[in-house]
Amino acid sequence: MNTEEHDAFATFSKKVNWHLGIGDVSAATGVSQSQLRYWEQKGYISSEKVNGQNRKYSYETLIRVFMINNYIQQGFTLGAAEKKAAAHRETMELLKRSMVDRFQGISKIDGYPAINLGFVDDQQTEILYLVVKEDRTDVKIVEQD
């Protein structure tokens, strides 16, 4: 997906009502409704009233609840879990933005899928690929003729 397609999908996503009720979020994550209300009161998550109805949560909030709960299950306090989830989200946003900016397509190198991240030199003679193998991802620079 190029940057233009990504932006178009982001715009579309904002126009569509992608919201879940508190019961849906609770059922999907295993976090009780009372805990969700408490987390919202503390400012760790947010909801909105959609068409004047009960609280509705975005899919982004659903993922945030899942991550916070996962860190809590690993032994972190609620505050520490929220900070770790926020740091993880920031890292994922940076990765997403950099991949969208650099992505040029997918090819095959030595029979493996290779993500083309574009030219790495001003002369545009070398292309950077991430070669995705079963057990690892290799970096490869391929010279263009």
Automatic annotation (TrEMBL):
Keywords: DNA-binding, Repressor, Transcription, Transcription regulation. Residues 19-87 form the HTH merR-type domain. This is MerR family transcriptional regulator. The keyword Transcription applies. PANTHER family: MERR-FAMILY TRANSCRIPTIONAL REGULATOR, REDOX-CYCLING DRUG-SENSING TRANSCRIPTIONAL ACTIVATOR SOXR. One of its GO terms (molecular function) is DNA binding. The keyword Transcription regulation applies. InterPro entries: DNA-bd_dom_put_sf, MerR-type_HTH_dom, MerR_fam.
